[in-house]
Amino acid sequence: MTHDAPLPPSADELGAALPPKQRRFADYYLGSTKLNQSAAALKAGYKDHREGWNLVRLPAVKAYIAARMAEAPDVMSKDEVAARLTMEARNTVDMDDFVTVAPTPRTFWVPALEHQPVKDLAKDRGLQPEDLDVYDLDSAFGADNVSRTSDGDLLIKVATIAQDVQIDWQAAKNAGAFSGLAMFKRHPDGTIEYKVKDTTKTLQLLGQLHNMFGNRQVLENPDGSPIKFIVGVAEDDL
User: Fold this and answer.
1) Numbered ranges of CATH 1.10.10.1400 in the chain
2) Model pTM?
3) Integer angstrom CA distances of residue 53 from 35, 46, 64, 111
4) What is the CATH number of domain 11-75?
């Protein structure tokens, strides 16, 4: 004859077994204080905020907190946290892989009096830029590169090579590169600014999850309370 194993107590049952003050602490800890031990202790009515450190280590309080978190549908499990951190840390897709820079000829018109080559031409001839006429500019820059505004101001056509940046957004999306972006912004002038996530913090969190670093070791009594040390006093005298 087999017997089903008894079900573990629910969060409500564990909470009902706690002293009211400890229950309030745990509820504040999981609620409005967002896992802040000190703030939860003060909200629960403890005079010393350091009591929070002791309370979260009491076996009954720890069990209630763990049960509440396990029953919450929006709380990630440890395995899910590890999987998400691993996926983010392994995201090595670089947005630069989808960016192409193409040199593109561009021409634009500038006021002749503001164009440095015009100033240099006038200086070479011992004149002021405004003393040069259209014939001087035609002979120096070519008739096709000289024009006038409706107000009669002379213009010079300037040719340059612009660096056109193009991003293959569809390819980036298909490769999952967007998940590696910490910021993406399209400016009114059409330019796009983006920032790639720094995975260093993610790797640190993942390392802590696997206990890879020398974290502080907490010493506790069997009941979960901290072990007290007094310098200069023998253990038998405590």
Assistant:
1) 11-75
2) 0.39
3) 11, 12, 16, 72
4) 1.10.10.1400
136-190 per-position pLDDT tens digit: 999 999 999 999 888 889 999 998 877 777 778 788 777 777 767 777 777 776 6
The better pLDDT of the pair 46, 165 is held by 46
Output the six-digit token pair for 52: 């929070």
Asked whether the beta carbons of 196 and 181 are under 8 A apart, the reply is: yes
Q: What is the DSSP string of 97-124?
A: GGEEEEEEEEEEEEEGGG-HHHHHHHHH
Amino acid at 7: L
